[in-house]
């Protein structure tokens, strides 16, 4: 949730009023982009970057008060949704409280003794994880939000830029406080899961492959190869955040409409059925808002109401809720492929548990194809997840499929 852009007011109080809409959509958890005060030194644009943080234990007054934040969390919990905070452990603002109040050793320094700038993020200052006091202060601040403000977990920004030993130690400490803590890493290194620091990580490689398939820079065989390699690269419990958009992609590379074109719908479906996948919906997607948000300024959605895109995502969330075979991580069903005659375009996969089966037939190409395959033991009566109508999957399927068309069948 991009609180700044979700509503004309751009406040937590206004965002709270949208939670029943998201609950009705089928959302289980809301990841809030950073809600902390933003630095003024080197500020970009009129409002600055959400990720240039002055104080880890306060709320940006432009968004409201701590009481407004608590009310947001309370309403989300009343509706049965969890709340994740965006956590930026790698750096702070250049005028952060810690720069003024803490020892110089808390920050990496340049030749002139100034806090170092990571990458080209000129409005930020790089923390020094050689100083163990930084570790403790970060963990203290995270625990503050868990114990004092009842958040349920964290999405950890650029997690690979911080030592994995910090995440292992901090996660263990936080899970003692909150055993059902959820930790999502914006990274995909394998060591994120070795000692249980994280529950999920980004599927960046898959996302880029989806963009490439949509633009025909590569074929669906590359996505197939990715799925099999990913299965071997991570423990069974690891969940992978699957998305067609997020705040970075939307602002810097364009909306899913501009990046994926006619493949937008089928790629969204793919994120809901792919093994390990934990699907993400970014602010605006739930109403089909075709716009690339300004990152450093106010750029709110002008008109927000349910439409056909809302219905599309509601069907996808119902598909996940109603079919245990599609659960993320080790709870979900493994993937089996049905071989077909057009595997450079057509993906025919099955995910199955003891009492649930989902068959996904997806023409991930801009070509009309004549599909031909044998279903074997998977033949039988199903329900079409997108229409609700019964569907008989015959022993041999031979049919014409339009570009970017799909059928998702549940039993």
Automatic annotation (TrEMBL):
Pfam families on file: Alpha-amylase
Domain of life: Bacteria
InterPro entries attached to this UniProt entry: GH, GH13_cat_dom
Keywords of this entry: Glycosidase, Hydrolase
GO BP terms, alphabetized: carbohydrate metabolic process
Domain Glycosyl hydrolase family 13 catalytic: 5-320
Keyword flag Ribonucleoprotein: no
Transmembrane segments: none
UniProt keyword Hydrolase present: yes
Any one GO MF annotation of this record: hydrolase activity, acting on glycosyl bonds
Cited PANTHER family: ALPHA-1,4-GLUCAN:MALTOSE-1-PHOSPHATE MALTOSYLTRANSFERASE, GLYCOSYL HYDROLASE FAMILY 13 CATALYTIC DOMAIN-CONTAINING PROTEIN
Name under which the protein is recorded: Glycosidases
Taxonomic lineage from the root: Bacteria, Pseudomonadati, Bacteroidota, Bacteroidia, Bacteroidales
């Amino acid at each position: 949730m991009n609180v700044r852009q979700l509503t004309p007011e751009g406040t937590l109080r206004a965002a709270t009023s949208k939670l029943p809409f998201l609950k009705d959509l089928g959302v289980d958890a809301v990841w809030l982009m950073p809600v902390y005060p933003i630095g003024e030194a080197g500020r970009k644009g009129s409002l600055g970057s959400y990720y240039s943080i002055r104080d880890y234990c306060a709320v940006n007054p432009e968004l409201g008060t701590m009481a407004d934040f608590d009310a947001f969390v309370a309403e989300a919990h009343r509706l049965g949704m969890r709340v994740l905070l965006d956590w930026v452990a790698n750096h702070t603002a250049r005028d952060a409280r810690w720069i003024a109040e803490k020892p110089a050793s808390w920050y990496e320094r340049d030749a002139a003794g100034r806090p170092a700038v990571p990458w080209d993020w000129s409005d930020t200052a790089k923390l020094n994880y050689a100083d163990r006091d930084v570790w403790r202060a970060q963990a203290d601040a995270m625990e503050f939000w868990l114990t004092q403000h009842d958040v349920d977990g964290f999405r950890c920004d650029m997690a690979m830029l911080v030592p994995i030993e910090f995440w292992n130690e901090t996660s263990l400490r936080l899970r003692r406080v909150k055993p059902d803590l959820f930790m999502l890493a914006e990274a995909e290194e394998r060591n994120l899961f070795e000692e249980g620091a994280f529950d999920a990580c980004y599927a960046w490689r898959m996302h880029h492959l989806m963009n490439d398939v949509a633009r025909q820079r590569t074929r669906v065989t590359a996505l197939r190869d990715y799925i099999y390699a990913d299965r071997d690269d991570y423990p069974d419990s690891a969940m992978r955040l699957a998305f067609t958009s997020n705040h970075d992609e939307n602002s810097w590379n364009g909306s899913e409409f501009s990046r994926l074109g006619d493949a937008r719908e089928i790629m969204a479906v793919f994120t809901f059925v792919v093994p390990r996948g934990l699907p993400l919906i970014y602010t605006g997607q739930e109403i089909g808002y075709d716009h690339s948000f300004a990152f450093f300024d106010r750029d709110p959605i002008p008109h927000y109401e349910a439409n056909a895109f809302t219905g599309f995502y509601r069907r996808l969330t119902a598909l996940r809720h109603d079919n245990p075979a599609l659960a993320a991580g080790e709870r979900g069903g493994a993937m089996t492929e049905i071989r077909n005659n057009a595997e450079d375009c057509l993906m025919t996969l099955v995910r199955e548990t003891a009492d649930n089966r989902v068959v996904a037939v997806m023409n991930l190409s801009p070509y009309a194809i004549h599909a031909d395959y044998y279903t074997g033991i998977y033949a039988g009566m199903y329900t079409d997840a997108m229409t609700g109508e019964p569907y008989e999957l015959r022993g041999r399927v031979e049919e014409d499929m339009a570009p970017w068309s799909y059928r998702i069948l549940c039993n």
